[in-house]
Amino acid sequence: MAVVIRIPAQLRSLTGGEGELSFADHDDVGQVLEELTAQFPELGSRIFDESGEVRRFVNIFVADEDIRFSGGLRCAIKPGQTVSIVPAVAGG
User: Fewest CB atoms within 10 Å of the CB: 73, 79, 84, 92?
Assistant: First the structure.
């Protein structure tokens, strides 16, 4: 089973319009995102800051759990799980 990454509408122009992408199983979220950004380099600067950390206005979820509270980029991922990239919404 592959890991599925859900791409939000705001970033789909960087993935050729794809809303879901499948990748080989990996041990953690960081490895999956590394493969994603290797395939779509422009996406990397939207997800990661200059120090390689997830930007503070980008939320990453694995099976509905925010990775900030479950190990960050080292958050374990199991075959078949879904990774969702969710930009924070702000406004007034």
Answer: 92
> In the sheet that 20-23 helps form, which strands lie side by side, from edge to edge?
20-23, 3-6, 82-87, 58-62, 65-66
- The reply to whether the predicted model has a pTM over 0.85 is yes
- Region label for 56, one of left (φ > 0), alpha (ψ between -120 and 50) or beta (otherwise): alpha
CATH number for the 3-87 domain, one of 3.10.20.30, 3.40.50.1820, 3.40.50.1000, 3.30.565.10?
3.10.20.30
Q: Which residues lie below 8 Å from residue 58, measured CB to CB, with a gap of 6+?
A: 46, 47, 85, 86, 87, 88
How many other β-carbons are positioned within 10 Å of the β-carbon of residue 29?
25
Question: In this predicted model, what pLDDT tens digit does every residue of 13-34 receive, in sequence order?
Answer: 999 999 999 998 889 999 999 9
